[in-house]
Automatic annotation (TrEMBL), chain A:
It catalyses: beta-D-fructose 1,6-bisphosphate = D-glyceraldehyde 3-phosphate + dihydroxyacetone phosphate. Its EC number is 4.1.2.13. SUPFAM superfamilies: Aldolase (SSF51569). This is Fructose-bisphosphate aldolase. The lineage of its organism: Eukaryota, Metazoa, Chordata, Craniata, Vertebrata.
Automatic annotation (TrEMBL), chain B:
Coiled coil: none annotated. Keywords: Glycolysis, Lyase, Schiff base. This is Fructose-bisphosphate aldolase. Belongs to the class I fructose-bisphosphate aldolase family. It catalyses: beta-D-fructose 1,6-bisphosphate = D-glyceraldehyde 3-phosphate + dihydroxyacetone phosphate. Its EC number is 4.1.2.13. GO terms for biological process: glycolytic process. It is an enzyme of class 4 (lyase). It holds the Pfam family Glycolytic. Pathway: Carbohydrate degradation; glycolysis; D-glyceraldehyde 3-phosphate and glycerone phosphate from D-glucose: step 4/4. The gene is Aldoc. InterPro entries: Aldolase_I_AS, Aldolase_TIM, FBA_I. GO terms for molecular function: fructose-bisphosphate aldolase activity.
Length: 381, 364
């Protein structure tokens, strides 16, 4: 505490800051295409497509071979490990395909959650393989940072410039506990510190699940506490904030809350929370969509960017389901649907680009896939 | 941590937020006139004036008689307890004189530093006992904000983790109690300029201290929109051989704040900490012209840096009162411009304005 032992040189800081700024450049957000094998299985099952490596590759190719103009809306793409090493039909690697559009490549670095003993089903993140107990989240906790430095160094060589690590908290009458908040904040900070040592911008994702019947105020309160802990931990671990991004949940009511709120309610609650907890040095906040429908996720983001509250950071998106649902539904596993799927993706990307400038004007009807809630109970990887 | 038990109603929050915004309205800052009896002794000693209650009253009268020009540049005045209950020659209470100018009245509520055993001369600040009752009374007597000063110092092994944690915690308790009584807490975690450390060291320590302060405020459920921060600027130690420009000080200061002070905080009112009057104005101006984005008001809460010229013009003589008041108004206007980034400097390097006001190891 008394003396600084600088973690990064000025050159390293500049490199990280430049990457972060490129990802959240005006009108741009992130495509979260980092679904694990298991999660991709869920997606593909919904459109009756078999979860094979080739099908996963084929769908990602559809997204990544979009016309270069997609780079007006997409500043970064997060990949799963397998995908980083896949190629398109012409043999070009996916990282190369993405980078030649001027889009930054990112890599998911966590490998899912592990239980915290003595808690009410709470979790922390590990970097190791899941055990059969993970689904229940009732067994012993474990670490997860082992070998992360070496993995980061390798991913940087292989084309990644940012990382993503998801921590999960949930709201019930007894959670999140002090331990869960503190442990997840600490782990996120360790991950962030290691990333920066290897030239990767860490996206810090402390997701508070939308499961439950709590109201908007409760979510706001919990989010404020969680984010305050996250930023204290980042400071304690000497993380360079200008070279990070935050990927939080929006502040919303629980999914089974009887009370309904407007996008403006969500916007005010979310931005207020961020103003109270996220230092202005953080260049961008890229929201997760967390089960919101494509349209809901865009409307909420738009409302935030239209709100009269000050916004010293970019407010943009890092959407998985909320960018891909229509594309998946258009594809249904058939190569002849490629153009239709790309068009569906391009449309959502463009809408979200408008939303992150507060310029999205809803016109006419929105189609069924866009409105469908993408909520999956107790969403884990 | 799981459930909210709201500390304040919506009405209470609005009242606090309104007060805070009035104090740091564009172009306005704070006159810190809250010197304790002991501090006043030092000031009056320097101009050969006896430290009596009457002399302290006469001196504050010099400041508070300033004309309406100060309305544009002074948003708040911090009082010491004694001064809250003093009156001008014509019987007008000082509190009323200030409020009649549309300026918010504040009160120093801490009771000075006490040692932290087992540390290298570090301290915490006392004053929490009965604080709630005192705040309630001060609110009735006209105060709408308060100030509490904690002190940290930089040396080879300080500030320690204990000192940072304890001072952050006591500041958060104080802030919480104030807000319960309708009083906006100014949170002052001063890192002394004593020492030969460089600018970077001060920046590093300031970032650590402020991160701890805001974590404590969050833990104690303090409503940030109804608070103000009174930090040190980030500067080198007073005996540091390297000299830095106002622009370097500005960049280091604003960078540290951007990394630690949530944008919800309406204003940051810097202490002058021994800088000369002119230095404090020039640095504040540089802070307000710094190219980094600044989501809070950045203004002044100056004691010595607003009063030095006035004190030396007064020298305890009634005949000098208007000249002394004029000196104060001049500094107030200059700092009002600096708070807008519009001050171009005096060009005058001599006299009281440039004289270093540094007092070794400043404690109340």
């Amino acid at each position: 505490m008394t003396h600084q032992f600088p973690a990064l040189s000025p050159e390293q800081k500049k490199a990280l800051s430049d990457i972060a700024q490129r990802i959240v450049a005006s009108g741009k957000g992130i495509l979260a295409a980092d679904e694990s094998v298991g999660t991709m299985g869920n997606r593909l099952q919904k459109i009756n497509v078999e979860n094979t490596e080739e099908n996963r590759r084929a769908f990602r190719e559809i997204l990544f071979s979009s016309d270069i103009s997609i780079n007006q809306s997409i500043g970064g793409v997060i990949l799963f490990h397998e995908t980083l090493y896949q190629k398109d039909s012409s043999g070009k690697s996916f990282p190369a395909l993405i980078k030649e559009k001027g889009i930054v490549v990112g890599i998911k670095l966590d490998k899912g959650t592990a239980p915290l003993a003595g808690t009410n089903g709470e979790t922390t993140i590990q970097g190791k393989k899941r055990s059969k107990y993970d689904h229940d989240c009732t067994v012993l906790s474990s670490t997860g940072l082992d070998g992360l430095a070496e993995r980061c160094a390798q991913y940087k060589k292989d084309g990644a410039d940012f990382g993503k690590w998801r921590a999960v908290l949930k709201i019930t009458s007894t959670t999140p506990s002090q331990l869960a908040i503190q442990e997840n904040a600490n782990t996120l900070a360790r991950y962030a510190s290691i990333c920066q040592q290897h030239g990767l911008v860490p996206i810090v994702e402390p997701e508070i699940l939308p499961d439950g019947d709590h109201d908007l105020q409760r979510c706001q309160y919990v989010t404020e506490k969680v984010l305050a802990a996250v930023y204290k931990a980042l400071n304690d671990h000497h993380v360079y904030l200008e070279g990070t991004l935050l990927k939080p949940n929006m502040v919303t009511a629980g999914h089974s809350c009887p009370k309904k709120y407007t996008p403006q309610d969500v916007a005010i609650a979310t931005v207020t929370t961020l103003l109270r907890t996220v230092p202005a040095a953080v260049p961008g906040i890229c929201f997760l969509s967390g089960g919101q429908s494509e349209e809901e996720a865009s409307l909420n983001l738009n409302a935030m960017n239209q709100s009269p509250l000050p916004k010293p950071w970019k407010l943009t998106f890092s959407y998985g389901r909320a960018l891909q649902a229509s594309a998946l539904a258009a594809w249904v596993g058939k190569s002849e649907n490629k153009k239709a799927a790309q068009e569906a993706f391009r449309k959502r990307a463009q809408i979200n680009s408008l939303a992150c400038r507060g310029q999205y004007v809803v016109s006419g009807k929105t189609d069924a896939a866009a409105m469908q809630s993408l909520f999956t109970a107790s969403y884990t990887y | 941590m799981t459930h909210q038990y709201p500390a304040l109603t919506a009405e209470q929050k609005k009242e606090l937020s309104d007060i805070a915004l009035r104090i740091v309205a564009p172009g306005k800052g704070i006159l810190a006139a809250d010197e304790s009896v002991g501090d006043m002794a030092k000031r009056l000693n320097q101009i050969g004036v006896e430290n009596t209650e009457e002399n302290r009253r006469l001196y504050r009268q010099v400041l508070f008689s300033a004309d309406s020009r100060v309305k544009k540049c002074i948003g708040g005045v911090i009082f010491f307890h004694e001064t809250m209950y003093q009156k001008a020659d014509d019987g007008t209470p000082f509190v009323q004189m200030i409020k009649d100018k549309g300026i918010v009245v504040g009160i120093k509520v801490d009771k000075g530093v006490v040692p932290l055993a087992g540390t290298d001369g570090e301290t915490t600040t006392q004053g929490l006992d009965g604080l709630s009752e005192r705040c309630a009374q001060y609110k009735k007597d006209g105060a709408d904000f308060a100030k509490w000063r904690c002190v940290l110092k930089i040396s080879d092994n300080t500030p320690s983790a204990l000192a940072i944690m304890e001072n952050a915690n006591v500041l958060a308790r104080y802030a919480s109690i104030c807000q319960q009584n309708g009083i906006v807490p100014i949170v002052e975690p001063e890192i002394l300029p004593d020492g030969d450390h460089d600018l970077k060291r001060c920046q590093y320590v300031t970032e650590k201290v402020l991160a701890a302060v805001y974590k404590a405020l969050s833990d104690h459920h303090v409503y940030l929109e109804g608070t103000l921060l009174k930090p040190n600027m980030v500067t080198p130690g007073h005996s540091c051989p390297t000299k830095y420009s106002p622009e370097e000080i500005a960049m280091a200061t604003v960078t540290a704040l951007r990394r630690t002070v949530p944008p919800a905080v309406p204003g940051v009112t810097f202490l002058s900490g021994g800088q000369s009057e002119e230095e404090a104005s020039i640095n504040l101006n540089a802070i307000n012209t710094c190219p980094l984005a600044r989501p809070w008001a950045l203004t002044f809460s100056y004691g010595r840096a607003l009063q030095a010229s006035a004190l030396s013009a007064w020298r305890g003589q009634r005949d000098n009162a208007s000249a002394a008041t004029e000196e104060f108004v001049k500094r107030a206007e200059v700092n009002g411009l600096a708070a807008l980034g519009k001050y171009e400097g005096s060009g005058d390097e001599s006299g009281a304005a440039a004289q270093s006001l540094y007092v070794a190891n400043h404690a109340y």
